[in-house]
Every structure is written in C-alpha cells, then in structure tokens.
Amino acid sequence: MADDDLDELLDEVEKKFCRSVSVASSAHEASGETLKTDEKRKYSASKPEQPISSVSEDIDALLEELLDDDFSDSLKSKPEQLSKGRQDEKKQSFPSVGRKCCPVFVGGSSVTNGVGTATSKRSCDQLRCISCDFRVLMFDDCEWDPSCDYLFLRNNMPDRQKLRTKLKKRRGLRAYACQCSWFSTSEPTDLRDQPQLSWVCGKHQD
Fold first, then answer.
1. Which one of 19, 26, 35, 101 is most buried, counting C-beta atoms within 10 A?
2. pLDDT band per the 50, 70, 90 thresholds, residue 32
C-alpha cells in the first residue's frame, strides 16, 4: 500500500515538473520570436524600402536633366562656331584674277599704259621676260644708245641709275629692257612682230 502511494506521488511530481519546464520553454521561445519580430519592425521602420517605380522615375528625371544640359550647351556653341567660321572665311585672301593684254603691245611715252587689245592698243606696263625671268623696266622719253649690249644689262639690271648711263634723251620714245634684251619705240608695236623679245604680259590688277 505504501509503495502504491509513493508511486502516485512521484508521478504527480513528474507531471508538474515537466509541465512547468514545457511552459517555461514555450514562453521563452515566444518571447524570442517576439523580440525578433520587433527588431525586424524597427529595422524596416528605420530603413523604409523605396518602391522600384520611384527609383526608375528618379533615373529618368536625371537623364532628362543631363540631356537638357547637353542640348543647351550645343545650342550655345553652334552660333560661336558659325561666327568663327564666317570670320575665318573673311580672313581668307583670294588672289585677284586680273586681266592680260591680248595681243601685247609696247609703245612710246605718248601711248597710254594699260590692258592692250586689238582695238585699244595700250602699252603693257606689266611685262616679264620668260628667258631671264626679270620684270621689264621702262624709261619714258628715252632710247637706248647703240653701245648698249647684253653684258651691260646683265651686270647692271635692275639698277635704274646705272642703266641710265646707256640711255639717250629722246622725246616721245620709250626704252624697254630686261636682263637679256632691250628695245626702243615711239609707236604702238605688237610683240608678235618682235620675235627676239621673250616678253609676256603679267596680270593687270582690276
């Protein structure tokens, strides 16, 4: 009888002890889960997640702003480039075309200088020799002395003062000379009739 009472007592103690342990452990687990939940709530509250749509909208706005800045800068630079291009065009110098005598005439001091034609017969004052590559000099109211020769011209050309030592005063005539040839005339003379002279017309400026 005493043994039966002892067993019942032990069973009752065991049940009470196990129940208290299970309650304590379940309470502890519940409190732990509650703490984790609270921490998650606090973290999510301190760092709110930004919606994906709002992020894409911010990126689009930033791109539009950058594009607007680039477009405005390009508009500002274009007038400057155009004005600079126009200034460069103005600075460029183009050689004047000019005109040439056709045919080429030489004449005395009374013959007008300028662009010669078959009708005007002006005396060309832009002559150049294609043999010696010297410009042809002119002396009004003068003619070459018969003692003038090639060696004299070669040594003294284009010094006008030295060349005058072989010139004679002759009203109405005009003396021409390069480094290799010389000629005197009073009337308009077509150079095609003077094959010994290798003189051509340079360009007359308009």
1. 101
2. low
Rounded to 5 degrees, what angle do the CA atoms 142, 148, 152 make? Answer: 115
Arithmetic mean of pLDDT over the chain: 75
> Is-contact 177 144, C-beta < 8 A?
yes
Q: Average pLDDT, stretch 69-79? A: 55
CA separation for the pair 32, 53 (Å, rounded)? 36
**DSSP string of the chain, one letter each residue:** -HHHHHHHHHHHHHHHHHHHHHHHHHHHHHHHHHHHHHHHHHHHHHSPPPPHHHHHHHHHHHHHHHHHHHHHHHHHHHHHHHHHHHHHHHH-------B--BS-EE--TTSPBS--BTTT-PBPS-EEETTT--BPEEEEEEEE-TT--HHHHHHHTT-HHHHGGGEEEEEEEEEEE-SS-EEEESS-EEGGG-TT--EEE-PBP-
Model confidence pLDDT, tens digit, residues 176-198: 999 999 999 999 999 999 999 99
